[in-house]
Amino acid sequence: MTWVNFASLFNGMDRPKMMIDLSIIALSESISKPGNYALILEDVVGKRRIPLIIGASEAQAIAVAMEKMQPLRPFTHDLFYQTLKQTGVSMKEAIITRVQDEIFYANISLLTSSGESFTLDARPSDAIALAVRFNCPLRATAEVVDVSGYFVDDKTRDKKGSYAEYTLAELEELLAKIIKKEDYESAARVRDAIDRRMGLK
Fold first, then answer.
1. How confident is residue 82, by pLDDT bands cut at 50, 70 and 90?
2. Domain residue ranges in the chain
């Protein structure tokens, strides 16, 4: 019997990237960046969370689609969605492909009525807004989840009581949870950590 070395089949070509399905679990105002919003995504299997800071208009576009609201006039994402549908193009998936210097990158995979598929570069917020409208999968590469994902109960403070292990978006999510529990003493400490991170203290 002849054994095939499957790894050798990928020599000289790009290896397929493992994709992880994501879901949207929270969308709230950003405390550290007024006018922006914190969008929290979660790995549906491993339950790791990925925080994104997005603009107000993109947050509104996502929220409107999630709540199935009908605005008086179509948003830009609604116009693009209707244009694609009217021309026989569907969206297969939105993928967060990489993160570099805390900036996330994404693309959308589209399929024409004739079966031709193609990919477009997109901001993650725009890709997500369209994915919600098309009700198609939202995914990220395993590398993105490994680099940016975190477990909710996996963060611990050091002996000085700082929150050095948290990203700014994670601190904002933590603050929102603590305030909801009305633990204002802890909330004050987290808010101080956010202010220090922003250079306000």
1. very high
2. 19-151, 168-198
How far apart CA 115 and CA 109 sit, in angstroms, is: 12
State residue 7's pLDDT score.
42
Alpha helices in the chain (DSSP H): 56-66, 76-86, 124-134, 142-148, 168-180, 184-197
Residues 6+ apart with CB under 8 A from 1: none
C-alpha 177/C-alpha 51 separation (Å) is: 14
C-alpha to C-alpha distance for 81 and 133, rounded to whole angstroms: 7
80 in helix, strand or coil?
A: helix
pTM given for the model: 0.70
- Pick from 52, 53, 42, 51: which is nearest to 20 by CA? 42
> What class, spelled out in words, does domain 19-151 have in CATH?
alpha beta
Label residues 86-106 b or e (16+ Cβ within 10 Å = b). eeeeebebbbbbebeeeebbb
